[in-house]
Amino acid sequence: MTKRKKQRKKTAVSRRPSKNLTIQLAEAMAFYEEGEVVAARQQLLGLIKQRPRSKSILLALLEVSERMQDWRTYAYYAEQLLPLERDEDRAETLNNLVYAHIQLIYPALAWYFAKELTTKHPDFELTIQAQSLLTGLEPTLLEEAEGLVGATASPNETLNLMVQHDRVRFYTESGHPEAAIPEAEAILEKIPNTIPILNNLSLAQFMMGNIAQATTTAENVLAQDPDNFHALGNLVRYSVLTAHFEQAQAYAQRLEKINNDNPYLPTKQAEAFAFLGDDEKVQAVYKRAAAEGSDLNPLLLHLAAAAFYRLGDEKSAWKLWQKAVKQMPSFDMAQASLAEKPLPLGERSVPWYWPFSYWFPQDIEQLLDKHFGKTIQRKSARGVEQGMKALLAERPYLPKLFPYMLELGDRTAREFVLNFVRVVETPELLQVLYDFACSPHGSDDLRFEAIQFISQHHPDMLPENKEVPMWRNGQQSNLFMMGFEITDEPELVEGISEEVLQKHEEATDLLLDDKLEEAEDMLQEVIAAAPNFYSAYNQLALVYERQGREQEARALVEETHARFPDYLFARVTLARIFTQEKRLEEARELLKPVLRLPKLHISEFRVLARAEMDLALADNQAEGARTWLEMWRRIEDDNPELLQWQMRIDGPDKLLADLQKLVGRSRKKRGRR
């Protein structure tokens, strides 16, 4: 069957679209024209929820879906368009529905729309092809129906039941369970206990949030057919997503023992093992299926890719994702994974098995609306906390599911858990967050965000030395976690007159202008007037150092530290001197009390970071120096010193290579637009 491509006038149906709707539609099509088809589709799907009978939106959505070869979206919304069309336009949509359902392998639905086309539009130019398709499909459908629905009153009734069956499959697999359930129930009234219908009904019930019903329906299937792999796979999924992990394992063991030539079996087995995080078994299922030489389901290819990547074979993973996208260009999971290939290792969220939507029944949106309302952005912190606790009360198994989501879910799933834990700070959830921070799963920034929250709000969870084993750019190293807050509020100096403070400020300006002798004279005046003004001693030591009077500078630093042991700048400066002299352990001991402070001024943090990087490099611990540089960059990413330190740590060659990669990625992005 040929799909006809024809430019059609996009007209309004009943009312003129609102200005806001028109603007949003224009924005969506601008995305489309720029090649951002995924963004265009998302915008259009949002618009169609607001105006389900808008012909202009439906036509735009069909155009975008066709470009993406997203035939599920195309077929669903093309059928919504049918009542709004007349004559040749309607015939063309019917013809395209036949084509879409052939691509999706719903032969009974293809037959249904072909029959509608030949009956209602006999003069349409492609009706002859539709009639030929009808002639070829009917005997096959009637033969398949014998095993599915048994003997019925007439061939026509049998064909209509097959259409209903395809509708149940299509609605379930396309994410429209609310439409699938009544269709399934209608068939079951005529033919009770039909196993394929029960399996799809079970899935639709689960997607609607009716977990108990879904489980009962699947168990009814197993009562009739104990080795039904669809039901077993579904029950593994339901059990995992409600945190009944032992039960899930039991169903998975039964599923693993099944061995037949049904082409859907490998995907269902891999799906079950993926929910359990069993990479070896996912990989083994794929290898067996690939050895048989048959075409593989894109979902199986995605799951196999994630398994290969998690087991250390990144090269095979990218090939499998590429194969999945080639086979089904609209397959979001493989597309999203493959899009991360150009990213540096630490910026990738792959590998993951399941996107956020897979971790909840479809009622997650209703649940969030129920507990947070439509205006969550305007809720107070207390309101958000109450909403999350209410959600937790309704779904008490969530804390047990969160570790699976953090390990096996995509970035959105991980962000959901991270944000949830930051609001509902139970000991159990905080431990989940800490374990995630120490894991290799997800991007570096998300894990760092998790450990930063722990460090700032629950520092007692950190090891005594505050060194946390973390993964960075694919390698594990110990990361020192600051347990202090960084502030830029000016320090209040007590017991010092305004006149002395003014002189100290003038001396600092003279030092910055390299007027060293004048700065020295003024600092001596400050010290004479305020002998306990420790900051003046630090500035004077800096003057001596700039003048080349290194012994005097060192002596003054030691004297200042002895007189004022709590004065951070003298302590850190002395630590740097010890580092230069290779007295590394003494330097570490000097810095330890600083690391335990609850708050640092940004200027204090800078001198501490410099001292820690000096110490790490002197001890041949470049990774430790990079860690401090990264912390500094997160706090003050525009400081020009960062580049100098990066060159010192990594050398100019590494910096040049990184810049070349960055420029290359930037050019690629500009080229796409």
Structure report:
The protein is mostly helical. Among the domains are: 221 residues, Serine Threonine Protein Phosphatase 5, Tetratricopeptide repeat (Alpha Horseshoe); 125 residues, no CATH class; 109 residues, Serine Threonine Protein Phosphatase 5, Tetratricopeptide repeat. It contains 33 helices and 4 strands. The protein has a two-stranded antiparallel sheet with strand order 1-2. Strands 3-4 form a two-stranded parallel ribbon.
Layout of secondary structure:
Layout: H1 19-33, H2 37-50, H3 55-68, H4 71-81, H5 87-104, H6 107-120, H7 127-148, H8 155-173, H9 177-190, H10 195-207, H11 211-224, H12 229-241, H13 245-256, H14 265-275, H15 279-291, H16 298-310, H17 314-327, H18 332-338, H19 364-372, H20 381-394, H21 398-408, H22 411-423, H23 427-437, H24 444-457, E1 467-472, E2 475-480, E3 485-487, H25 498-512, H26 516-529, H27 534-546, H28 550-563, H29 568-580, H30 584-595, E4 599-601, H31 602-618, H32 622-635, H33 641-672
Parallel strand pairs: 3-4
Antiparallel strand pairs: 1-2
